[in-house]
Design goal:
alpha+beta, Porin, twelve-stranded antiparallel beta barrel, 7 helices, 15% helix, membrane, MipA/OmpV family protein, MipA, cell outer membrane, signal
């Protein structure tokens, strides 16, 4: 998708926000905070959380080396507007809408449909962070605009799709995904969910993260590789939340993914399959 078309689409979506009408919280959102007593609508429209997790996962997509790190997370929701780090939106209850990380808002909330837009900072890649990517060009930090849609098949089944574009033209390219989520267990204090999805990307994104330019073959010792657009990966995971008290809760999850198509064929890929897991604690109002 050309940058101009993406930018125009995103700006048009933002303009629609001034006419969007507030909707009542769904039954699923109420279940997501079962230990919290009913409050006036004004209070329900201001929610936030702070937390941290210990996570383990590959150094980069396709790496055979694992990395352990502590990840702070937070999220806030004021009316229709949300802002969150990666993983924060799901913990605060608007992850099922497909909001994801960054600043987001719902444009349409009609029956089972949700349509929204978001902006987030993409940190790119510092090629010196992993031995196998040293010598490659860095992928610059950029700003990504995202359009997402979610359809509730049932109160516990959700189907979502999204498109995310680098709007600053810093070689981040375009990515897209389709995901199916299922909340398969919920009680007064505990919730378990799982999901399956597939992602794809345009040639610019795959060249930035999986390509080897001819100018870098000598420094990397790898053959030149210039992938085209195609599938990126298929992924599966599950997670849980458990209330420890009125405000404190434990959360965690694990997942696996497998690179596909042009991404899997990259000489940078040491392992097409990977796994990740995390466990954390958070406080919410």
């Amino acid at each position: 998708m050309p940058h101009r078309l993406t930018a125009a689409l995103f700006c048009t979506a933002l303009a629609c926000m001034v006419t969007a009408q507030a909707q009542e919280s769904s039954a699923a959102e109420k279940v997501n905070k079962p230990d919290k007593p009913d409050k006036p609508d004004a209070d329900e429209n201001i929610r936030y959380l702070l937390g941290a997790s210990l996570a383990i996962g590959p150094e980069y997509d396709g790496s055979s080396r694992q990395r352990v790190k502590i990840k702070p997370l937070w999220a806030a929701k004021i009316g229709r507007f949300r802002i969150a780090t990666s993983g924060g939106s799901a913990l605060l209850g608007f992850g099922r809408d497909g909001a994801g990380p960054g600043a987001s808002t719902q444009l349409i909330e009609r029956d089972k449909w949700r349509l929204g837009v978001s902006l987030r900072v993409d940190s790119g890649r510092d090629s010196g962070d992993a031995r196998s990517t040293q010598g490659l060009p860095d992928v610059k930090r950029t700003l990504r605009a995202r359009v997402y849609v979610n359809y509730s098949l049932t109160p516990d089944w959700n189907l979502g799709a999204s498109l995310s574009q680098d709007v600053l033209g810093r070689q981040g390219g375009l990515t897209g995904s389709v995901d199916l989520g299922w909340r398969f267990y919920r009680s007064e204090h505990t919730e378990w969910s799982t999901g399956l999805g597939v992602s794809a990307a345009n040639a610019q994104n795959l060249r930035s993260y999986f390509g080897v330019p001819a100018s870098a073959t000598a420094s990397t010792g790898k053959p030149a590789y210039e992938p085209g657009a195609g599938l990126r990966d298929v992924h599966f995971g599950f997670g849980f939340k458990h209330a420890l008290s009125k405000h404190w809760f434990l959360f965690g999850g694990a997942g696996t993914s497998r690179l596909l198509g042009p991404a899997a064929d990259s000489p940078l890929v040491q392992k097409t399959g990977s796994a990740a897991a995390g466990l954390g604690v958070a406080w919410r109002n």
